[in-house]
Amino acid sequence: MNKIKLNWIFLLIITSTVLLALPSLFTGLKGDEITYNSISNEILNAKYYFNGSPSTITPLIPVINSLFKFPPFFDISTIGHRMLNLILAGFGFAFLYRILKRNNLSKPIIHSILLLSITNNISLACYNTMYPESMLLFSFWGIIYYLGNPKSIINFVKILILLLVATLTRYIYITLGLLVLTYFIAFLKEEKHLRMKIIGLSLIFIIPLFYWVKHIYIIEHTQENNLSYFSRYEVENPILYNIKCGIGVEKSFEVNKHNGIPAFISLFIPKTGLRNWPVSIAMFLICIIGFIKQLKIKDYFNLLCNTLLIMLALVLAGTGFSRYWLVLLPTYIIGFYLFSLKLKLNEIYFYYASLGISIIYLINQFRLDLLILKTI
Q1: Domain ranges of the chain
Q2: In the chain, at which residue ranges do the beta strands (DSSP E only) sit?
Q3: What residues have CB less than 8 Å from 47, skipping those under 6 apart?
Q4: Could you report the per-residue pLDDT of 178-211, keeping only the tens digit for each?
Q5: Which of 5, 13, 189, 214 has the most crowded Cβ, counting Cβ within 10 A?
Q6: Which of 14-18, 58-62, 91-95 has the lowest mean pLDDT?
Q7: Is the bond preceding 330 in cis, omega lying within 30 degrees of 0?
């Protein structure tokens, strides 16, 4: 395929995607943004409160939001935070690009994976908001990238920082620490003369987590709080209940419809509330099958392991809907591509299919932006 033509098509679609993401920057607060904004206002008063009571909501998003508030002069927290998240999403996709490139994927396939990840309508609905998905995209793909780099002190520090960022953005991302732990052990064995430095850096990483866990323990056991991530564990038989909700056979008391595995399809099709067990399971299995026999490649092994760890954590937490899987979307697309190789399909068909789907996503987003502009 003509390289100049390919580059222009890619740049045109990416530019259109960024432009279509801009109107949402100027809309009012919605959903969890209201919660984050409320907590960030209390942070300015040296309190981590929500509706007058201490909160255990993960701290990073409210803290970042508070940095964009300058009372009594002006408050640019909504637009400033949303723009920052767009930038972080860009860095996350840059990590993804580097991972794909170092695994010698062709330019059409790299472009295909990026296009499907960036133009996805849930991407356009989340990465330009105060929601945590941009921060998680940046940290998750950063961890995957540095895990695949040669072991060094600087790379280890970056991994620890990104793991801390991910964990303080959404609790379940602490599961990524399992692969980081294997990196830590291997690093200790390979660099015996650096053992004290490696252990010391790890302890520094643990300190802020220790203080936050202490905060959670005190609030959950000694005070009432208005909004808690851990309230879902206060039901009878919480593990069994959460697993049922996480795989979608039961509806959680916190939501108004079934989530979990039946909602997997909604990550790919721009239709609100879509649920389908057979298709969702089939799509997930296709992704897994695609990775089989590719796990000797370090990045693919790290990627699949970390993705499965996050999905397992979502099941145990009793949740799982399209927004929570968004960070993992490139993993699924890579899996679909690897599956197409098993079918011995020419990669150009994968590229054209990706191009067509991306255009459909953009047309749908253009329709939504027209509705948004009418309300501004």
Answers
A1: 24-375
A2: 49-50, 53-54, 69-70, 74-75
A3: 54
A4: 999 999 999 999 988 899 999 999 999 999 999 9
A5: 13
A6: 14-18
A7: no
